[in-house]
Amino acid sequence: MLIALQKRKENIAEYILYLWQVEDLLRALQFSPEAIYATLVAKTEGTDEQQKENIFNWYMQIVELLRKEGKENQGHLEHTLHLIADLHNLHLQLMQLPVGEHYRATYAALRAELPRLRTIIDKDEISDTELCFRALYAALLYKIKGGGEQAIADTLAVISPAVGELAALYGKVERGEINLFEE
User: Fold this and answer.
1) CA 49, 53, 59: angle at the middle one, nearest 5?
2) First to last CA, the chain
3) C-alpha closest to that of 65 among 79, 81, 51
4) CB within 8 A of 148, min separation 6: which ones?
5) Whole-structure pTM over 0.70, yes or no?
6) Which residue among 69, 110, 138, 140 is the one 20 to 30 A from 163 at the CA level?
7) Whose CA is closest to 128, among 167, 162, 102?
């Protein structure tokens, strides 16, 4: 919970990927409250019992959402998918508006790779932005499992600059630091 709150403030892309990891971790723990507490809460350093209870309740709320949305075995919470849709809407605006000039140049390097990524991820119906997140998450999982270092590095090198810039611009828009419609 504490990490999620920090990531949400600092970088929306890292926040989304972190929540996806949490979803998979909760599934691996089979949504067991005892396992969740022992694995994710009990060892949290620098927290008192009240904070541990809050952290545990946060994990259990995610469990409840996964169950409510029918995503006990796979899939991602609607919350994160809505955030990705917001990012995609920003992407579409940046592709048109003057403020997006640098972003368009960064995105151009990624554009040629999208058909290949779409074939690998095998999801025709999702936006290019969601496709990038799914590819980043797949690379993260492969990195954790070990192997495929060059493929992971290649994927990250192509996707990370565009997603990173999009996330940074999202944060600036959200904080009111930039106006999309100023010239």
Assistant:
1) 145
2) 39
3) 79
4) 142
5) yes
6) 69
7) 162
